[in-house]
Design brief:
Strand content: 15-25%
Oligomer: single chain
Number of helices: 13
Bound molecules: pyridoxal-5'-phosphate
Distance between the termini: 64 Å
CATH class of one domain: Alpha Beta
Strand order of the largest sheet: 4-5-13-10-11-12
Structural class: alpha/beta
Order of helices and strands: EEEHHEHEHEHEHEHEHEHEHHEHHE
Radius of gyration: 21 Å
Length: 406
């Protein structure tokens, strides 16, 4: 058994600050809120250098000192890559804005950034002896859970709203997860897991209901800073459902700042939602700390169709502390932007990713993003997972080809 040098000291309730011991299985805190993993950052700083990190394999396990897994045999790998930052120069010209960089998260295993969170959640479940996992999902998280559980040999049950894209349901089922279609939304699925976990013996892997998915998503912030030469962009546009990534990146920048690897500058964090499901935007505008459940949630961007987030206050805290904001865009604008950026720059965005660029256009017009700010947009999943408009014109090879039509 190889020990990985780790620096976890304890876990902490994100709301009350109450401490909980490391190396034990935890769900939510007693206050019913997410737990955050805390590290001895001073010891970490003396144990690893930027040069050490640079010399390691290009995968997110290169940040292992910033992660909670203690034993190497619990690390589960499916070929996680450092995802590229791709520029969108033509869109940038058309919008007349600062540099646009798209973080292409669809290159990760199972085709979405959910791989980051679930790689960590399943590794820690393995380390802490979990026998059976369960999760409500809009698709991508379930696919990642199913794949990492298959690899870790942990059975899992995955609950999807019955209008989840078929491709997601198929990829969950093919990885051997018990796959359930539920005639409700993701929080209805979550209720099934919550109410059944005692009697069935499930470990509840719902977004933010276990502490380690945030740590996995934190690697987006670590990786982004490293790719920018240990610096941060002016603005990060993040399509926000449960908010794990926004919370995780904000935590990454805090930890990097504390050990002096980045300076005092922080990106403005912008939470992007769809107008058909915008609880965080409403709470931001109302100036409150918690968001009400959004009724009749509906959007083409399934990954951000989350009517209620248990980490709402952590999302809002990150957005406000960073000087950012929350904004919502229409489904029509999402689809138009997806089609546009595919043509202008050859980047196939998922609807959630396209929402961030639609938000960029909207907020350049409103003036909340200025024309000289560098923005990073997250393309969270491969656009190929989603239904695309059909195209193509017919050629009948039984007739002479009319070359005049080209
Ligand atoms: C899960 C998901 C999101 C939302 O991510 P959170 O960190 O949970 O807010 C956005 N886009 C896609 C494609 C997703 O799968």
């Amino acid at each position: 058994m190889t020990e990985i040098p780790t620096f976890v000291t304890h876990l902490e309730c994100g709301l009350t600050g109450k401490h909980y011991p490391a190396d034990q299985l935890h769900g939510l805190s007693e206050a019913g809120r997410p737990l955050l993993v805390r590290y001895d950052l001073d010891a970490l700083k003396h144990a690893v250098t930027k040069e050490d990190i640079a010399s390691r394999a290009p995968e997110f396990w290169r940040y292992r000192e910033f992660l909670p897994v203690r034993r190497a045999e619990n690390v589960i790998r499916l070929g996680e890559v450092m995802t590229p930052l791709v520029s969108a120069p033509a869109l940038q010209r058309e919008l007349g804005c600062g540099e646009i960089l798209v973080k292409e998260e669809g290159r990760l295993p199972t085709g979405s950034f959910k791989a980051r969170g679930l790689a960590l959640a399943v590794a820690m479940a393995k380390e802490l002896g979990v026998k059976r996992m369960a999760m409500p999902t809009n698709g991508n998280a379930g696919a990642a859970l199913a794949a990492y559980c298959a690899r870790a040999n942990i059975p899992c049950d995955v609950f999807c709203p019955d209008d989840t894209p078929e491709v997601n349901i198929a990829e969950i089922a093919i990885a051997g997860a018990r796959t359930w279609r539920v005639n409700g939304l993701i929080d209805d699925c979550g209720r099934i897991v919550g109410e059944g976990k005692q009697s069935v013996g499930w470990f509840d892997t719902s977004t933010l209901k276990e502490p380690y998915r945030i740590e996995g998503k934190k690697t987006m912030g670590l990786e982004l800073a490293e790719q920018l030469g240990w610096d941060v962009p002016d603005v990060i546009l993040y399509p926000t459902g449960g908010g794990t990534g926004l919370i995780g990146m904000w935590k990454a920048f805090a930890e990097l700042g504390e050990i002096g690897w980045i300076g005092p500058k922080r990106p403005r964090m912008v939470a992007v939602q769809a107008t058909g499901c915008a609880p965080i935007v409403k709470a931001f505008e109302d100036g409150v700390e918690h968001a009400d459940r959004w009724e009749d949630a509906s959007t083409v961007a399934a990954g951000i169709r989350v009517p209620q987030a248990v980490g709402d206050f952590l999302i809002l805290r990150g957005v406000r502390e960073s000087g950012g904001f929350a904004t919502a865009v229409e489904d029509d604008a999402i689809e138009a932007m997806r089609d546009r950026v595919a043509r202008t720059d050859g980047i196939l965005m998922c609807p959630e990713g396209a929402a961030t660029l639609a938000a960029l256009e909207k907020e350049l017009a409103s003036g909340r993003i200025s024309k000289d700010e560098t923005v990073v947009s997250f393309n969270c999943a491969t656009g190929l997972k989603y239904p695309l408009p059909t195209g193509g014109d017919f050629i009948d090879i039984k007739q002479p080809v009319d070359y005049g039509m080209f």
